[in-house]
Structures are given as structure tokens and as C-alpha cells.
Amino acid sequence: MLFRIKTINRRVSVASTTQMGNKKMAKPIQDFYPDELAHCYGCGRLNPQGLQIKSYWDGTKAVASFTPRAYHTAIPGFVYGGLIASLIDCHGTGTAAAAAYAAQGRPPGSKPHLRFVTASLKVDYLKPTPIDKVLVLTARPVEIKGRKVVVDVELLADSEKCAIGRVVAVQLPEEWTPAGSSPGQ
Fold it and tell me: Taking phi first (over 0 means left), then psi (-120 to 50 degrees means alpha), and beta for anything else, what does residue 10 get?
């Protein structure tokens, strides 16, 4: 897969191309994380008690969906705000990884591994989020600079925008990596 990046007024637009044209990523970005870095409560595929968020990159944005459970309640009928923040957070860092691979012209999962953590998270709750709907998150990178990626995220329930967020994600420092699984290896 080949990638190209285009900068417009300090904002970054990332586009993915293949020989077959624009193509959605068949696997979520989280499935490309090495096992040693796949235990996050929100998006770690190896955390059976976690939320198991899956972010699908299409070349310019990433989309994820999540179905809240009854225990994710704040007040009857509505999702607890901490869950909304977690969804925005983990979907944002996953999108940052996908965008960084694209910006570097590398396929997802290639070495050195690109794994991001949250430096800043801002969430605006626009309206109560119903608990009985599938939540759809759409994230777009708006800045890629060095080890930092800024991502804007929207959360919708039944096509109604319920929350928006901004995630400032930074590439995981090597010293945070478990022994023997350096991102550069």
C-alpha cells in the first residue's frame, strides 16, 4: 500500500492509495499492534475485559462503532460520560497510529511499530447519549508533527452528534515499551 500526505494551511490531509485506488483497511489498526502493546482497556485486543474498540482507517479518517451495555449507564437510558471519553480517547490514538503510518508511507504494523498514547484529551458533551443505540465514532487527523498527532473525533448515536473530542497523541516512548519489544525492533 502506498501513501501520500498533503499539507494545507498547517492542517494535514492523509490519503491512502493502492493499485486498486482508495481502499478501506481490512483490519482495524489495533490488530496491527504487537502483542506486548495490545493490552489497553479501551482498545487492546488482548484485554478480554476491555472495550475492544476497533478503528478502521480509510485513508483520510477512521471509523469505529461501539454498542453500550446496560452497565455503561449514567442515568437510566443514557451512557455514562467516562465511557464516551474512553471511546474518543482510544479511537483517537488508534487513528493517530494509522495516520502516522500513512504519513511515513509505511504499511500499518511495519517496524518500527508506531503506538500512540494520550498527551491531552478534551471532550465536549453536546447532548445526552442514548444507551440503546450503536455509537459511531469518526476521527480525522488534523495535525501531524514529529511524534505528535492531533485528532478530532465525533461520536454519533442514531446519526445525532452527541459528543466531540480532540486527542493530542504522542508516539510511545521506547522506555515505556516492555523489555525485549522495543518499537524499533
Answer: left
User: Which residues are within 8 A (CB) of 105 and not within 5 positions of it... i.e. 6 or more apart?
Assistant: 2, 3, 4
pLDDT tens, residue by residue, 128-142: 999 999 999 999 999
Tell whether 88 is covered by a domain. Answer: yes
Cβ contact 135:79 at 8 Å:
yes
Total domain count for the chain?
1
Q: What is the pTM assigned to this prediction?
A: 0.84
